[in-house]
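Suppose you are handed a protein chain with no further information: no name, no annotation, nothing but its sequence. What can you learn? This example shows the usual starting point.
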Amino acid sequence: MTRPLTHGFSGDWSGQLVATSIHGGHGLREDTAAAMRLDEDTRLREEDPFTDRIGSGAAAQVVVHHSRFEVDLNRLREEAVYRRPEDAWGLDIWTDGELDATATENSLAQYDRFYAELGERLDELAARGPFVVYDVHSYNHRRDGEDDPGADVADNPEVNLGTGTVDEHWRPVVEAFTRSLEAQEVAGHRLDVRENVKFEGRALAWFVHERYPDTGLCLALEFKKTFMDEWTGVPQDDHVAQLRDALAATHEPVLDALRKVGPR
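A reasonable first move is to predict its three-dimensional structure. Written in structure tokens, the prediction is:
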């Protein structure tokens, strides 16, 4: 079987900041496509489209092209292939009830290859000193249907900053990020940025913090899907561009704070 491109590392990696989009992909291999019960619209609704565009202001980017329904890079390896509906929002994913063993191994090989290549890239940054990864995601807030006006904003920030495994040494960097992002105006208002309200970061953040305890900082960013219609999948291009620019405006404050705190 010809294996399609599943992820790409692009841009200038000579700096100390990288943006990732690991749930933005929609592609499937032939074997997972043949086994997939979900229609494309349902699959797209649970993916994070356009997060590569939101993070594209970073000089260095990691963009994953395959769907999280093939292999989820933000879960531990043993949980990375969705096997049962309870693994994936109650969705019945596979035509035969479960993905067969060969296809599952193909997916786990993708998982292993991704983290091996990411580690090689980040090793170079760590050798130069502290670095930061923006792990860019998005989340749904209109789950009750197309007419749902949106979940309560009290529990659904416009940007959820996940820092569940961030060491306190990096607190000045986290605060620099928050101050700079919430100062940005998007769609006519200042951004609502709150920490660990809905998400705290998962496998990619854990990987960075475990492998680089003295130099690596991963900020897990979940943008509420106000920049798109989560039911039709159609983006508001100007809104996406404003989010990209707002996120890019945090780079210098964050890197400055990173230089000041130094390695742990």
